[in-house]
Amino acid sequence: MNTFMGIRSLRAWPAFLQLRKGHQQLRLARLMLQPIFDRRRYRQSHSTKPDKVENFEDTIQWLEEISAGRPCDAAAVQIAFAISAMHTTSELLKQALLDICMHPYIIPVLRDEAQKAVEESGWTTAGVFKMQLLDSAVKETQRLKPGSLDVILPNGLTIPRGTNIAVDSSMMWDPAIYPDPFSYDAYRFLRLRKSGNTAAALASTSPEHIAFGIGKPILPWEIALAKILLTYDVRIPEGTTPKIVEMGFEMLSDPDAKLEVRKRNDL
């Protein structure tokens, strides 16, 4: 989060100013990870069975393999993974929860759908596939608050490193594509899905919905949201209405938004 806040601040000030908080956290990450690197290398180099060297199925092991002895700042790479994975996931989850809580009529329907899917198929890919209304609700959140991402063009065009680009996402508010485009409708993509539109699922991309680019499938994130709805009662405090914050090309969830949460009594 400090990285994103630092980037926004640096855009408004001369380039010679340093992102001090980011550098401090990078140094801390190196201090935290170095003992892990040292322990792993020791265990691998002192293995009693050279033909069965211990492997670790994680990004640290992956970096060790692809670096092939070349210098590699694993701490910086780990932070880069965190920036691209954790922030986007938490931001979407937060906004999806806020949207659902601002339309509380949908909560029991989503909860029933998730409960039935888990009972029939468990927390599996098949179970997640059956949560089609939840899928639609999250995709509707993306539509109302689209993101902007760099894209690799399929025609071979190279965009130089450091180039600032933006992709027009106005089609996600086009009434010719999405009727009543500025209103939240949790059923919007469920209707499209049932009509045979294969790109209506959250994990699919299309020219009409580019919240996470286009061309490659994305990961469905319904599991965390379904788990929250099945375990807790959630609502927005009375008298408050969270608003999306616009900053240049960015659209962020209300940083001051609050939710009232309690564990469900019928569990």
Topology of helices and strands:
Layout lengths: L1 H10 L8 H26 L13 H9 L6 H29 L4 H15 L3 H5 L2 H13 L43 H7 L27 H10 E4 L9 E3 L2 E3 L7 E4 L4
Describe the structure in your own words:
There is one protein chain. The chain has nine helices and four strands, in the order αααααααααββββ. With about 270 residues, the chain is mainly alpha-helical. It folds into two domains: about 1-70, no CATH class; about 95-265, Cytochrome P450 (Cytochrome p450), CATH 1.10.630. Strand 2 (about 245) and strand 3 (about 250) form a beta hairpin. Helix 5 (about 105-120) packs across helix 9. The two termini are about 35 Å apart.
How many whole angstroms does the radius of gyration measure? Answer: 22 Å
Counted up, domains total 2
User: CATH superfamily assignment of the largest domain?
Assistant: Cytochrome P450
**H/E series:** HHHHHHHHHEEEE
Name some characteristics of this structure:
2 domains, Cytochrome p450, mainly alpha, 267 residues, two-stranded antiparallel ribbon, two-stranded antiparallel sheet, 5% strand
Describe the structure concisely.
The protein has helices at 2-11, 20-45, 59-67, 74-102, 107-121, 125-129, 132-144, 188-194, 222-231, and strands spanning 232-235, 245-247, 250-252, 260-263. It is mostly helical.
